[in-house]
């Protein structure tokens, strides 16, 4: 965000306002919201200066790992359900992927609930309680005795965890110095860890504790899926306890400023600076002398339904406050929607596609299938590391350049995947495909919260993740009714990811060149 020390009355000098508007838009997100509320813009500049002055501290390191656990949980629960789904269907006599549908629906409503509420009541409640609720419901899912109750608790566990992708980057970003914003790309690494753990536990428990067909599958011979749920739930429970005990998160300074709670923001930043012997020059008088913001209001003053809906509508309006901002938000939402179709569709079609390619392509037994899957998912964790390295070593690429590289490389490898002839080629190409698509994932996870302002960041993230969740709800239906024996779906997924790469070049803002507001 460039310096905004010289301000003027836009009503008295409309021609200057027009000139600054044009230059501000070209400079990036940090200036975009100045004309809609110059008071908020000036206060955010002071907050950013204070955060940069304090620098990266052990508090930020704790936030990095504890927020990463939220990403970890999101993918862990997703891969957990997909790993056991076949044996759940065997036991309860189902062929339609109803549990997958409930999982996606839970993640969708969770993203909207936790994300929209984060801009109203703050980030703290979701951060502290989402994992705890998710852990409890996950453990309880393993004890269910019917498909109906199983699906209910799948929904509840995913609803509880659904806000993690929305809030984790949001919380970390709003404490982060500008020079360290590239660290956001590493959150997708935790996503890889979560899926590796889920697949690894499935590999450990399912092959020897599961039935083999829908015709003969009594509960006492099919307890592997229960063990998987119990262990995964306990892991999430440990992470939830760490979130509450290791770090006592307070509301982020940018959320406090956006809600006219200046004194709390100053106190918070000074407490961090004093604890780690850092300098912080920000004073309450500096903030109060600027005035009161107008484009947002404290939720505590609007506890009725009408007032709440008005605040939410105001946050959404902020995401489309002018033509260029609307273009940015629209392209981000479109990218998440296409990503929600491409990656889950590839995952849903892949097992059946492999089964039609012959015995030389896939493993001959259940244990071998999970082993190959574990290898592919383990390699996927390299994607975020590559994305972070590209941003750190080649800063001229920016977020958009890394998004382009990830999308185009994923397209190439997915197209190549249709030509595999052996099991070794299957493992190699699937591993590389996962890693390359995670380069894109990592950069998009970082880019999305950076281009939304703090006053509506939770809302913007929620709508972005909701777009991909809507697509994820539809994917099981496509996979169930479509012809999964051909390579056409993989070609379509590859084309989608390639389009995403080129779409990134149309994004109007490059966050690496300025500070976020």
TrEMBL record:
Residues 56-513 form the Major facilitator superfamily (MFS) profile domain. It is found in: Membrane. InterPro entries: MFS_dom, MFS_sugar_transport-like, MFS_trans_sf. Keywords: Membrane, Transmembrane, Transmembrane helix, Transport. The keyword Transmembrane applies. GO terms for cellular component: membrane. Residues 1-18 have a biased composition (Basic and acidic residues). It comes from the Eukaryota. One of its GO terms (molecular function) is transmembrane transporter activity. Belongs to the major facilitator superfamily. PANTHER family: MAJOR FACILITATOR SUPERFAMILY (MFS) PROFILE DOMAIN-CONTAINING PROTEIN, SYNAPTIC VESICLE GLYCOPROTEIN 2. This is Major facilitator superfamily (MFS) profile domain-containing protein. It comes from Spathaspora passalidarum (strain NRRL Y-27907 / 11-Y1).
